[in-house]
Design brief:
Layout: H1 7-34, H2 46-71, H3 75-101, H4 146-154, H5 157-183, H6 189-214
Amino acid sequence: MAPEKSPNRTRRLVAFGVALVLVAVGAFAIGRLSTSFVGTPSNTSAAAGFARDMQVHHDQGVELAMIVRDESDNADIRLLAYDIATTQSNQSGQMQSWLNSWQLPQAAPEPAMTWMTRPTLAGTGHDHGTEGAHSPGDPMPGLATQAQIDELKSLTGPEAEKLFLQLMIAHHQGAVEMAEAVLDRTDVRVVRQLATTIITSQTAEIEYMTALLAAY
């Protein structure tokens, strides 16, 4: 059974979506304005690795959101999907611009997730338990498999909505893990700003999607 739709609930989601978009736009503007005031990270730095890997992670988030938006007529789900797609697309572009401004290639010189296997910065932040939890070349945390994406494409209506919420909750949890890991491993200001934004906004969305899923 699909969750109950109501004007009040839709208005709450509209306000929620607008707030997250404003946060994302603000973070993007801050990042663009402050990029020139930081040193250039190395090609194998945590900052560069995060920028590359999180672009891939975000791009899949956009893909999942657009799939369900086409297969659902639930206003809450469609608005949530639009917000996720817009926010993560903007953030992906921001990270691409970092690499360009740092004069670093978009292609990584080492396997994905290598940066998450390196030691944390001594005395900076907290180690969130990611060190040693990944090996270079491992799948990024929370990524949906191709089989799961294909299944989502095959569904419509409430069944597509439920699978989307399940996949996106895991996807967001993985993004939060990556953002926490880079906070432990870099002092580059723009990277820390975006990572903090990701943790705040996606944690809120996890709570919201969990509530939506429970209503089915």
